[in-house]
Amino acid sequence: MKKLAIAALLVVAGCRGQTTTAGPRAGGASTAREAVERFLATAKSQDYDGMGLVFGSKAGPARATIEHVELQKRQFIFMRCFRHDRSQIGRETGKPTGERSIGAQVWYKDLTAMTNFTLVQGPNERWYVEQFEPDPLQRICASL
Question: What is the pTM of this model?
């Protein structure tokens, strides 16, 4: 019986990353704007798991497509550069390739930065932050 319980726990632990529902812990977001909102919220709260679900590509969430150590390195930098006291998300524009672009401004202490996000639609029509412009964030990244 003890071995069965251990095996069941291992199966549940192994399935942890396979989210198929559209709840708050599902991969991606239902809209491109929501993906940016989630990305910024996870950076502010230092939520590595949440960020791994909303940062991704057409293939799905980064935590399912990028090696764990590499993803954590990227997330560490993202968390530092996107730490903020408040944020404001701009308007969404479409691209001919089907991607979306959304600008966002973040304020951290006496610093402010404006960057643009590129969002893509992945599996199950979920939206992911694929990339952003890092240069405007350099002062926030480097600040103490």
Answer: 0.81
